[in-house]
Write a sequence for this structure.
């Protein structure tokens, strides 16, 4: 049921009207017969919506609809042939009118023959339509529904929210996540454990697995995290590669199971956590993955999701059954999806709750069904009448649905406008869990004819984009990121839930089929005609099932995951003459047969990322072709001249294909709206002038601009709807004055005249300065919708444009602007009005490789620098700032007052010596805060940075009442290879800091109380939220002191608490550190690694931090303790603690929860303390402890020790 009759007939009637109004129908002598077809179609069309609704319940209506669809497909092919032949005749006789001199036009024998054939076919078509119109009277009553003018329920430019709200509501998922994560992070002696999340389709298995995967405790406890989507039609090789890549490894040239399985085992060298989502068959485990995990270097946990409990049992998994949503949580999800977080509608929401709960009950506790119904209700009136119509719809009880498909999903489908139904069904032709590129999906819909022709500036792709947005808004498609992981934000990709895909497969089963790895031939009704074929893993030679070739009516051929396919027989295309869409991308295809030119109906051809070396000249015969994708064909260097005959071409993709030029004549393709990779030739091929006639362009990427010649006119003057523009040159080997001046002229002539421009990227521009249209003080007026700018290697431009004037700029990246020495107020843009804001919407700002940039000044703006009333505000929405390899930049502006900055990364700013208060820029106002929203700060490879001072801020350094607060939301801090930094500021008083990494700070010798940030208040806590602390390769660090804090060192009543939430501490390669502070009193420490602390000779009671209190415990929560390569460590003593050594009443307890202890390469350690009394120790590994001669009674193990791996060499 891929064809939706109402949409198809409506579109076809419009097409007939256009045909009858033109000269072609008269030239071919078919006008009268075509008018009969049109009248009959119009009479039938009023009954189609009723017929399509009743066909599920009445077989006679079903047969009538099926027969009418066959007629419509044939009618569509007939009118296509008329258009092709008529266009050819017009081209052969362009100066003659069919009205004035018909005899000359029809003098040729071939034309007379075609008129006779096509006339006969149209008469037969009319007879069939007459018969089916008569049959309608014998059917149950079909209502003649009134048609709207548009014939579609989709508002052509309706917008939908780009953000898709989280699916986690109520407590069910949160509670399940909490308990399962706690179970998964527990240490045990097993190589791996498998947890199976089991439940029916749509119940929320993936949502729960995702919640577990993203839990912070999982990230803390496992070094390797992998999410792999398996699905029903999985490829073994692809799955292995995905897991290897996800684990941070490389599979290199490996292509077989025999190569990939051992590689996966070797890559799993650290504790791993792997989720295998949507497993259907046990063979996946037994034949593929089990051996890899059993032979892994490290141990780990595996979580699977599956519909079938036997799959989980056969994998020996611990099973967690996902419960259906209860009514309260179901109503909360429905409410959230329909109303969002709008509190103003609370009264209206309350009045609908009773009906809403009844709707939820009908969804049977399935979150997917609830979300789908929410997509229906969002577009209904928010009234009891509107919601009752949904509640009482007949679609809930559609009897012919497969058992696993909830009626709610069918109701959501039935509520779609007819145009959207086609688009939704089409998505099921993509593989399961496939990451659909939205632009590519839209092109498929356009090529299939699902989108009606438009008028004005709106093109079909614009409408198709709205269709995609509406399907997402209705929860029938789910946004995802470029890696296929589900997202809350609508971006460039989307995916389809497998249950919705199953519904679509069920509805299209008589016309379309998806052949997976295990299925080589279609198993369909012999009376049905297959129009669409989607195939996976087709083998070396592309083969289509014989039954499809015999039917000769296939319109769509899609090939997926067929990396071995490199041959298409010339005869195949001759048997598939009615193809309209063909996708052979990502195969090894080397030759496209000449017979491709016989596919006169073809609209979409994708041979991107193949081995094709040339295109046949016959491709010029594809006069209906709309989309041609030749991207990333690395062996294709030229295009045939015939490509300029493709007058209906709308999209030409050439990106990444090493073409020498594009043939002259591209300017004749007036419908082109997407031109990706327009290559300027040397002496042949297109020049820039050809772009003047392409008025429909939305996307344009020009390459090899250094070859262009000035045209003397504005090249893009007519492209007034252009949205994306890439200007790409190549750096010349010699910079001559003539070359530079020519480059200036060319870029000035490329001035975009489109106020719709959203993205501008310029690469390798080498003029004397940026073009005049970029330097204009009216830049913001010229480009009011520009959101993204990339300037890459514009090496010779001494000044940046006034980009601060752009009102909607969100992302700005500047790379390799080597001539820039100063960035100051000119970058912000002069404003006449004192209240103006520079960069009012900018969210992301990157500077890379600015080799000569020395000074960065904000000038005088409100709250920045010297405050001045009425000065313009700056960067009020900037969230991410990155500076990379700006080696001469001497100082930073007062970034601390950027109110929304969340991420700051500064790397290789070699000229910076001091970062002090001027960086924070404290205000006179006592309520002012520096970096009020910064969450992550990275300072990396700052080779001359010596001093970092916070100055006087509230609670930091010398406390001063009213001094500004600093970094109140900072959670992650990375300091890497800042070798001259002499001391650390009082980081201990950053209230939200969770992660601290300090590496290669070679000038630091002492870390003491000043690092903690002592407070006057007795209740103060140092590092109150720090969870992970890494001190790595500190080559000159000698002393680490906590000073006097509560419970640490010499106890003092009222002294501040220290590191109350630290769970992970790692000291790696600190060769001069002489002693450890009393780490034993860190209450939440779970993992402690100490590696290559070569100056430590003794670890004794001071390490445990003895307390006066008899109830005190050292290392109360430590689970993993590892000492490695401690080359001078000689003595390890517990001292006198309760239950260890000589027992003493009231002595503190030691390591009550330690389950794993590793001592590796400690060659001078002479004896072991009494480890045998550690009550929870399960794994003990001692290797290369060469000075130990005897392991005696003092270190005997208790009965609770499960695993011991001792080796003394």
């Amino acid at each position: 049921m891929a064809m939706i009759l109402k949409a198809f007939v409506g579109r076809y009637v419009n097409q007939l009207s256009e045909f009858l109004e033109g000269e072609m129908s008269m030239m071919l002598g078919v006008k009268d017969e075509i008018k009969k077809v049109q009248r009959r179609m119009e009479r039938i069309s009023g009954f189609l919506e009723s017929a399509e609704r009743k066909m599920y319940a009445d077989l006679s209506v079903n047969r009538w609809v099926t027969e009418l669809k066959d007629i419509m497909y044939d009618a569509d092919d007939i009118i296509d042939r008329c258009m092709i032949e008529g266009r050819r005749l017009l081209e052969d006789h362009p100066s003659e009118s069919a009205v004035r001199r018909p005899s000359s036009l029809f003098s040729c024998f071939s034309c007379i023959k075609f008129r006779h054939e096509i006339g006969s076919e149209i008469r037969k078509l009319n007879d069939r339509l007459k018969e089916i119109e008569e049959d309608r009277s014998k059917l149950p009553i079909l209502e003649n529904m009134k048609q709207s003018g548009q014939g579609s329920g989709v508002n052509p430019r309706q917008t939908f929210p780009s953000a898709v709200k989280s699916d986690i509501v109520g407590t069910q998922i949160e509670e399940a996540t909490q308990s399962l994560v706690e179970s998964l992070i527990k240490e045990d002696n097993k190589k791996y454990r498998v947890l199976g999340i089991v439940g029916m389709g749509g119940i929320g298995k993936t949502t729960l697995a995702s919640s577990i995967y993203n839990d912070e405790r999982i990230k803390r406890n496992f070094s390797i995290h992998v999410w792999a989507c398996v699905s029903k039609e999985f490829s073994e090789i692809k799955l292995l590669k995905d897991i290897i890549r996800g684990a941070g490894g490389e599979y290199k040239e490996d292509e077989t199971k025999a190569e990939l399985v051992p590689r996966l085992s070797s890559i799993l060298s650290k504790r791993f956590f792997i989720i295998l989502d949507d497993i259907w068959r046990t063979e996946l485990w037994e034949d593929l993955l089990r051996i890899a995990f059993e032979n892994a270097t490290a141990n780990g946990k595996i979580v699977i999701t599956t519909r079938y409990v036997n799959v989980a049992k056969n994998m020996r998994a611990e099973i967690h059954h996902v419960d259906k949503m209860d009514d309260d949580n179901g109503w909360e999800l429905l409410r959230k999806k329909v109303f969002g977080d709008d509190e103003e509608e609370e009264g209206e929401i309350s009045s609908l709750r009773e009906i809403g709960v009844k709707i939820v009950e009908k969804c049977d506790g399935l979150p997917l069904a609830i979300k789908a119904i929410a997509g229906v209700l969002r577009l209904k009136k928010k009234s009891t009448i509107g919601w009752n119509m949904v509640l009482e719809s007949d679609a809930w009880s559609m009897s012919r649905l497969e058992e696993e498909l909830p009626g709610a999903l069918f109701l959501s489908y039935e509520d779609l406008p007819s145009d959207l139904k086609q688009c939704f069904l089409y998505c099921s032709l993509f593989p399961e869990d496939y990451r659909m590129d939205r632009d590519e999906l839209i092109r498929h819909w356009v090529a299939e004819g699902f989108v009606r022709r438009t008028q004005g500036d709106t093109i079909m792709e614009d409408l198709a984009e709205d269709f995609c947005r509406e399907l997402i808004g209705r929860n029938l498609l789910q946004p995802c990121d470029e890696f296929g992981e589900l997202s809350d934000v609508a971006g460039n990709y989307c995916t389809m839930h497998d249950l919705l895909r199953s519904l679509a497969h069920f509805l299209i089963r008589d016309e379309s089929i998806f052949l997976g790895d295990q299925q080589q031939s279609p198993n369909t009704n012999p009376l049905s005609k297959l129009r669409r074929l989607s195939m996976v893993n087709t083998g070396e030679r592309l083969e289509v099932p014989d039954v499809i070739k015999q039917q000769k009516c296939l319109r769509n051929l899609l090939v997926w995951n067929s990396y071995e396919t490199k041959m298409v027989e010339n005869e195949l295309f001759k048997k598939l003459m009615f193809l309209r869409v063909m996708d052979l991308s990502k195969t090894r295809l080397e030759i496209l047969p000449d017979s491709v030119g016989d596919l006169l109906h073809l609209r979409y051809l994708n041979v991107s990322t193949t081995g094709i070396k040339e295109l046949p000249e016959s491709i010029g015969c594809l006069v209906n072709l709309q989309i041609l994708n030749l991207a990333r064909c690395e062996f294709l260097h030229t295009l045939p001249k015939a490509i300029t005959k493709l007058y209906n071409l709308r999209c030409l993709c050439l990106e990444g294909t090493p073409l020498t030029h594009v043939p002259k004549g591209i300017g004749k393709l007036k419908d082109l709206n997407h031109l990706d990779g327009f290559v300027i030739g040397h002496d042949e091929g297109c020049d820039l002038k050809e772009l003047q006639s392409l008025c429909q362009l939305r996307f344009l990427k020009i390459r090899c601009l250094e070859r262009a010649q000035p045209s003397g006119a504005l090249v893009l003057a007519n492209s007034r709807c252009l949205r994306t523009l890439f200007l790409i040159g190549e750096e010349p080997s010699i910079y001559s004055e003539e070359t530079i001046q020519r480059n200036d002229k060319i870029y000035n002539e490329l001035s975009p005249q489109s106020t719709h421009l959203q993205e501008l990227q310029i690469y390798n521009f080498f003029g004397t300065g940026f073009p005049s249209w970029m330097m204009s003080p009216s830049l913001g007026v010229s480009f009011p919708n520009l959101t993204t700018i990339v300037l890459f290697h514009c090496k010779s431009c001494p000044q940046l444009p006034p980009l601060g004037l752009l009102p909607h700029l969100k992302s700005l990246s500047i790379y390799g602007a080597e001539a820039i020495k100063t960035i100051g107020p000119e970058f912000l843009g002069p404003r006449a009005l004192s209240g103006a804001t520079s960069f009012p919407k900018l969210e992301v700002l990157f500077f890379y490789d600015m080799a000569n940039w020395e000074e960065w000044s904000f000038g005088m703006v409100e709250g920045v620098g010297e405050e001045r009333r009425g000065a313009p505000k700056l960067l009020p929405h900037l969230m991410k700032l990155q500076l990379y390899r700006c080696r001469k930049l001497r100082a930073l502006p007062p970034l601390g007052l950027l109110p929304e900055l969340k991420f700051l990364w500064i790397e290789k700013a070699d000229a910076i010596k001091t970062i002090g208060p001027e960086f924070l820029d404290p205000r006179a106002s006592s309520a002012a805060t520096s970096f009020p929203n910064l969450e992550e700060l990275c300072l990396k490879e700052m080779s001359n940075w010596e001093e970092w001072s916070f100055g006087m801020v509230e609670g930091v350094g010398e406390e001063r009442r009213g001094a500004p607060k600093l970094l109140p939301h900072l959670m992650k801090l990375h300091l890497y290879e800042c070798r001259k930094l002499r001391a650390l500021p009082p980081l201990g008083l950053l209230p939200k800091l969770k992660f601290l990494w300090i590496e290669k700070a070679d000038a630091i010798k002492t870390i003491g109380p000043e690092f903690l940030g002592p407070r006057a208040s007795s209740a103060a806590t140092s590092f109150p939220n720090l969870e992970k602390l890494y001190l790595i390769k500190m080559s000159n660090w000698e002393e680490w002191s906590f000073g006097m804090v509560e419970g640490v060192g010499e106890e003092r009543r009222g002294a501040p608490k220290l590191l109350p939430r630290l769970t992970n501490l790692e000291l790696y390669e600190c060769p001069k550190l002489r002693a450890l502070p009393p780490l034993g009193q860190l209450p939440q420490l779970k993992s402690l690694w100490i590696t290559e602390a070569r100056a430590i000779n003794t670890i004794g009671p001071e390490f445990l931090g003895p307390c006066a209190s008899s109830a005190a415990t050292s290392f109360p929560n430590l689970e993993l303790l590892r000492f490695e390569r401690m080359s001078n460590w000689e003595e390890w003593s517990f001292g006198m603690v309760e239950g260890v050594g000589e027992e003493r009443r009231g002595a503190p307890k030691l390591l009550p929860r330690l389950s794993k202890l590793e001592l590796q390469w400690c060659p001078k350690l002479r004896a072991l303390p009494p480890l045998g009394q550690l009550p929870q120790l399960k794994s003990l590994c001692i290797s290369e402890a060469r000075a130990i001669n005897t392991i005696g009674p003092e270190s005997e193990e208790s009965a609770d020790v499960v695993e011991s791996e001792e080796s003394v060499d």
Q: What stands out?
A: The chain has a mean pLDDT of 82. Residues 59-92 form the longest helix (34 residues).
